[in-house]
Design brief:
The chain is an alpha/beta fold. The protein is built from 13 helices and 13 strands.
């Protein structure tokens, strides 16, 4: 939830939710307005127009693709279709909170695996954590909250060595940023896996549609996609959101500008924080994560007093870490000035 603005003197710098700092492209807003005129009718539950376009762009069969109210809905669905009480599921730590939440809601055991020191999901350790009771494995690239990006060898090892009885959920909420940072295209690599898998992506981040809630998943089979479709809440993606996502796919220049801007400001943030004694982790997402020289929670609280919001979280054997969303250029300037004041106080 975005905090209240305290006025021109202390405008909100919402750098804790990994939102886009820019609104959707004008053509996307126009598509949403047109769709709003028909809100007396239910939306297309299956999102067929959007899925057809996603199929053309990804090369995946349309009947292998599912949509959701953000990719978050599909994270819950993966737990629903794979886990029962007494089962185990493996997920990276620190990781997106939904992983642990969905696992425990199903009565299964959450097996947390520490990420590597560089913030990348530890594939070797993940595979070692798998047992005969494991039914689900979450892997993210780029990873949240670190920004760590898996390379081809790690994905190949995961695909090759993960047992076929396990559902692999490959979380790519930050997919577009990872590709812009020269990360690998995952689908050809995942397609080599014999066991079930789903790769989920989002319109919330790079497309600036966090408030619309649209995500999608690409699965390895129609049968698996059908399992997700069967448990979806009716009409969970509304008509305005569907129109926005479909229109956003055509706004390639808007996407490119956002990705270029993010890469530039990500470097500015990392360099500015390094000078102040922070240790940035390599990031291929729309945020920078740094290991802090002083308690991270205290630094975050001091920034909140300046109406700048960042995410503190624990990091092993250190005072903690901060995740800072890439905002506008003005956000970067304001954040670096504020954190300089905090660190010299």
């Amino acid at each position: 939830m975005t905090p209240p603005d305290l006025g021109e003197a202390l405008p909100v710098r919402s750098l804790h939710l990994n939102e886009s700092p820019f609104p959707p492209a004008p053509a996307v807003v126009e598509a949403m307005q047109r769709a709003a005129a028909g809100l007396n009718r239910y939306p297309d539950h299956d999102g067929r127009d959007l899925i057809a376009q996603l199929a053309r762009r990804t090369g995946a069969p349309a009947d292998h693709i599912v949509i959701g109210s953000g990719s978050n809905e599909l994270l819950y669905a993966s737990a629903d279709i794979s886990l029962d009480q007494g089962d185990e599921a493996v997920a990276p730590v620190p990781g997106f909170p939904t992983y642990a939440k969905t696992i425990t809601m199903r009565g299964a055991t959450h097996v947390g695996v520490a990420v590597r020191a560089d913030g990348v999901v530890d594939i070797e350790a993940t595979l070692k954590a798998v047992t005969p009771k494991t039914r689900l494995v979450f892997v993210a690239s780029p990873h949240n909250p670190t920004g760590g990006l898996l390379g081809v060898p790690e994905i190949e090892q995961l695909v090759r060595e993960l047992p076929d009885h396990v559902l692999l959920h490959f979380d790519e909420a930050y997919y577009e940023f990872g590709r812009h940072a020269d990360g690998p295209e995952s689908l050809p690599l995942l397609a080599r896996r014999r066991g079930p898998w789903i790769a989920t992506r989002s319109f919330s981040k790079a497309y600036g549609l966090a408030g619309a809630r649209v995500g999608y998943g690409i699965t390895n089979s129609r049968e698996l996609a059908d399992a997700y479709r069967k448990i979806r809440i009716n009409f969970s993606v509304n008509a305005v959101a569907l129109a926005a996502a479909r229109a956003a796919l055509d706004q390639t220049s808007h996407l490119a500008e956002l990705l270029d801007h993010t890469a530039t400001e990500r470097v500015r943030l990392a360099e500015g924080l390094t000078v102040l004694g922070f240790q940035p982790l390599p990031s291929a997402a729309n945020f920078v994560t740094v290991v802090t020289p002083r308690p991270a929670a205290a630094i975050a609280q001091q920034l909140r007093a300046k109406n700048i919001f960042v995410l503190p979280f624990p990091w092993p054997q250190t005072p903690g870490a901060l995740r800072i969303t890439v905002g506008t250029r003005q956000d970067t300037d304001a954040f670096l000035a504020a954190i300089r004041d905090v660190m010299v106080a």
